[in-house]
Amino acid sequence: MTYHFRKATTSEIPHIWIILQQAIARRKVDGSNQWQDGYPNPDVIQNDIDRNAGFVLTEDDTIIGYSAVLINDEPEYQKIEGSWLTDDDFVVFHRVAISEKHLGKGLAKKLMNFIEEFAISNNIYSLKADTNFDNFAMMAIFEKMGYTYRGEVHFRGSARKAYEKVISKNELG
């Protein structure tokens, strides 16, 4: 299998939306409140793509995952209840979702590894993200991948767990 991580295009929104709808349904089945309020939706994906922040994970030519990836662009992170490990430039990612047909293959981790490579290629060594208090699967991935819990941030009226990973420049191959 050959995996690629690249910017999404507007024509791919319908396919991305299917993947996000599957993830929304999974959150609900898991008993999570995350993404049960009409967010994300196709307009959010369009906005990601318009801002050059929408990225897809592909297997050969098939889209199997999605994430929004931005540099220094999360105003809510300035209001953290807690503290970040760094105050330097950072890459933030949101809306990590893997296609239902491709679950259980470690692809969320693979997608996050591509995000780390994206950060390094931009000479950025801090990655920040957040998740809902009841998204235990994502919290487990953060812990396995070396992210540190840093406190709470707030989105759309609810508290979220904030995480940061600092990539050591010596670790780079």
Summarize the structure.
This protein is an alpha+beta fold and 173 residues long. The chain has one domain (3-171): Gcn5-related N-acetyltransferase (GNAT) (Aminopeptidase).
What's the SSE pattern?
A: EHHEEEEHEHEE
Report the end-to-end length measured between terminal Cα atoms: 23 Å
SS-based class: alpha+beta
Radius of gyration: 15 Å
- Please give the CATH architecture: 3-Layer(aba) Sandwich
The average pLDDT is: 94
**Sheet with most strands:** 8 strands, mixed
Give the class-level CATH name.
Answer: Alpha Beta
Number of domains: 1
* The CATH homologous superfamily: Gcn5-related N-acetyltransferase (GNAT)
How many E strands? 8
What does this structure look like?
The chain is globular. The protein is an alpha+beta fold and 173 residues long. The chain has 4 helices and 8 strands; from the N terminus they run βααββββαβαββ. The chain has helices at 13-29, 42-50, 107-121, 136-144, and strands spanning 3-7, 54-59, 62-71, 81-82, 91-98, 126-132, 148-155, 158-166. Strands 1-2-3-5-6-8-7-4 form an 8-stranded mixed β-sheet. A hairpin with a 2-residue loop joins strand 2 and strand 3 (62-71). It has one domain (3-171): Gcn5-related N-acetyltransferase (GNAT) (Aminopeptidase), CATH 3.40.630.30. Residues 3-170 form the N-acetyltransferase domain.
